[in-house]
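User: Teach me something about this protein's shape.
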Amino acid sequence: MAHSGLDDGFIQAQRTALEQTREELTRLRDGLTEDDQDRGEDQAYETSDRGDLGREIHTRQLDESVGDQIESRLENVERALEKIEEGSYGICDDTGEEIPKGRLEVMPEATTTVEAQQRRDERRSPGAGGAGGGNL
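Assistant: First, the predicted structure itself:
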C-alpha cells in the first residue's frame, strides 16, 4: 500500500534526510559510549568526595536518558527507511491510514499518525495523561 500524496522526488528527499539523521544519531550514540568509557577509566584513578560523586551520578543519569532518546529515534529512522524500501512510507504502522505529508516533512521518521502515536504514548505511560515525547 502506497501513500497517494507522495511522489518519488519527495520520498527520495526523505530517504536522504533519514540517512543523514541516522548518521548523526549514530555519531551521537557512539560519542556517549566513548564518554562513558572514558569517565569509567578516569574514575578508577580518582577518589571522589560526596559532591563529586553526586555530580557523577547525575551526569550518568542524564547520559542514559539522552542515550535512550537517541536509540528510540534511531529505531524510528530505521523503521522509516524500511518502509521506504517496502513501498509503505507514509502509511501508519498502527492504522494503515495515510500520514499527512506535513507531518512527514517535519518528522521524516514518523511511522504513525499523530492520533496513533498519542494512543501509543498513553499505553506506555498510564496515568500520565497522554503526555509523552514519542514519535510526533
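Now, about its shape. The domain at 8-124 is CATH 1.20.120.910 (Four Helix Bundle (Hemerythrin (Met), subunit A)). The mean pLDDT is 84. If you'd like, I can walk through any region in more detail.
User: That's plenty for now, thanks!
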